[in-house]
Each structure stands twice: as C-alpha cells, then as structure tokens.
Amino acid sequence: MKVLPHLLALLPLFFAASSDASPAEARGTCRHPIVRREWRRLGKLQQLDYIRAVKCLQAKPPLTSTSVAPGVGSRYDDLIVTHVQQTFTVHLVGHFLPWHRFMMAVYEKALRNECGYHGAQPYWDWTLDVPASKFLDSPLFHPIFGFGGNGPYLPTPTTTHPDYVIPGRSGGGCVASGPFKHMQVRLGPGDDLTGNPRCLHRDMSPYFAGRYLGTNVTSLVMSQPDYGWFYRTLDGDTNPDRSSIHGGGHYAVGGNRGEMGDLHVSPTDPLFYMHHTNLDRVWWSWQKKNLPARLADISGPINILDYDNLIGGNVTLDFPLTLGVNAADVTIGDMMDIRSDKLCYVYDQVYT
Ligand SMILES: *[C@@H]1O[C@H](CO)[C@@H](O)[C@H](O)[C@H]1NC(C)=O
Ligand SMILES: *[C@@H]1O[C@H](CO)[C@@H](O)[C@H](O)[C@H]1NC(C)=O
Ligand SMILES: [Cu+2]
C-alpha cells in the first residue's frame, strides 16, 4: 500500500521523459499531432493496414506527366520522380534534413488522405537490430508483418556502386518474400526515368549495419554542438566506407544491387520511408535537447558538398523547398518544428 502512490507519482515523469506527445505543446491549428511509433510497437493489424496503404498508393494513377517521366506508373512513383530530379540539389547540402522531413510528411499525408490509412508514418529504429548477428532477423523484414527480407545472393556487385563493393553484401536478387515480392519497379536504375520494368532488389549487409547503425554512431551524431556538424556527422562521407547512420541504413539494405543503395531511386524501396523517418527522429531528438534555440539552427551549403562556401552560401530559414506535383512548396522555416501546422506530428520516443 505504500509503494503504489510512489509509483503513481513517478508515472507522469516517465511519460514526460519518453514522449513528446503532449497536445499542450502543440501550437497554432495543430491541436492533436499524430504520433509516429517504431514499427514493432504497432499492433499487427496496424502493421497490415500500413502495408495495405503503401500498396494502395502503388496502384493509384500518377500525377506526374509521362512527358516528364515516361516510366512513371503510380502515385507512389511521383515522389521517386521528384527525388530523382533533385538528387544533386537535396543531398550533401544544408537542407538535406528539412527536405526529407517534408518528403516523409507528404508521403504520410498521401497514405492517410488517398489510401485511408489512419495511423502516423512509422519509423525503423535500427539501433534495435544490431549487432550484425541480429540484423537479418529484424521484425521489419518479416514476410507478413513487415516488408519482407533479402534477395538471393548474386555474385557480381554491379549496378549502384560498380567501383565499390559494400563489405558483407549478401543478396542482390529480387526480394524473395513478403508483400513487395511482386512489386513492379519501373524508375531507375540511377536517373533513368524512361521506365525499366523489374523487381525490387535487396542486397543486405549485416556487417554494414553493425558498423553504422549501433547506438555508438547515433550517440556521436547526437552529441554535435550545432546543426552544421550535426548534419555532416549524420550524413557521413560520400565514400560508403566512411558512412554514418544515413548511408548505413541505405547500404545495409541496398548493398550494391538493391534500390535502397541507389542514390537516385532509393525511395523505390518502402523501407526508405522507414529509414528516413528515423533519421528525422534523430534530428528532432537533437533539436529537443535544446529547444527553442535549435528550432532556428540551420546552416550548411546551398550547393552540393560546398562546405567551405566556395560556390555559394549557406541555407537559411527562408530557403525554398519543393516536392513538385506532390505538394505546395514550403520553406526550411516551415519544417523546423514537427508540431507546427504544416507538419503536426510527434514521436512516441526520442533519443537522448
Ligand atoms: C560503432 O561500433 C561498431 C561495432 O562495434 C564499430 O564497427 C564502429 O566503428 C563504431 N563506430 C563508432 C563511431 O564508434
Ligand atoms: C556555413 O555553415 C557552417 C556550418 O554548417 C559554418 O561553419 C560557416 O561559418 C557558415 N558560413 C557562413 C558564411 O555563414
Ligand atoms: Cu534522399
């Protein structure tokens, strides 16, 4: 009888520390932000409903004109097209994280508004799937309550990085199980938008996951003092061998032959959205460590890899972001607070 009141007293503290779902924190018209949860914390019916909604988007007609992208075949492909078109203007730049935050939110809205999905976009906390020995057993790769797993091993590591073999790559063929076993992939490889009908490929590397997706790397990213270094530490180097958590997720799933490892058409793999939503969660976790200062902290080059500002300057809050036909344009400033009117979501848990 003495223990119970103590436990009850601790309860609000626990929730305050582990969740930012309090509607009281919301501003403007965002009164009830939707709550993004880790995939394995969804119920089985929610998991199936999410997969259903993704397949629904893959069956809807595209908004993109075939004169722009002859290979476009579905509403799902619309975001792939815009990602391909902007590959060298939204990666390795300061607005990499705001642009992908925008992309995740627009995908989430499409699933909800066009395909009747009631939940929030889930995320993949890959720190739960390392060390390497655990990786292939991730619940994310489950054939029914997940996204399916690897492709069968193909020896020649061609396609996305012919010059660099991802160490530990173990697949390369068509995804052999799960809801995307028969997925019709059309766009790519690379920047080819003419349409190349094929299967979804995965070329998983547990070794790569073990090296980049553990809590040690995420902690290093989280410990950076300002946005510029935070972003660069999260993104790593262009050489896959000096990756960080961004490249880690891409190459651990895509290897050399999988779409996830393709700089242009990586959004082909539905796991792209699970991975990038977790990267967004890392950014929000970092912002939350010092609100409100970090709601305004943005920097990094406008131009690709121009960290020394030799070509142009840094991005600022009024810098414009576009997703083409998929949404009305926004600015970086619109993307800084996930609880704002234009975004209106929170995470069930953050990294500390
Ligand atoms: C994190 O741990 C992995 C696995 O032990 C290791 O390969 C990697 O080098 C570590 N990275 C950092 C930045 O500590
Ligand atoms: C651009 O941003 C970087 C950090 O990302 C910072 O070190 C540098 O001073 C900034 N450059 C200018 C001209 O403000
Ligand atoms: Cu991208």
From TrEMBL:
Taxonomic superkingdom: Eukaryota
Pfam families given in the database record: Tyrosinase
According to the UniProt entry, where is the signal peptide? 1-21
Per UniProt, the keywords (alphabetical) are: Copper, Metal-binding, Signal
Q: Which Gene3D superfamilies match?
A: Di-copper center containing domain from catechol oxidase
Every Tyrosinase copper-binding domain range? 91-108, 269-280
This one is known as Tyrosinase copper-binding domain-containing protein
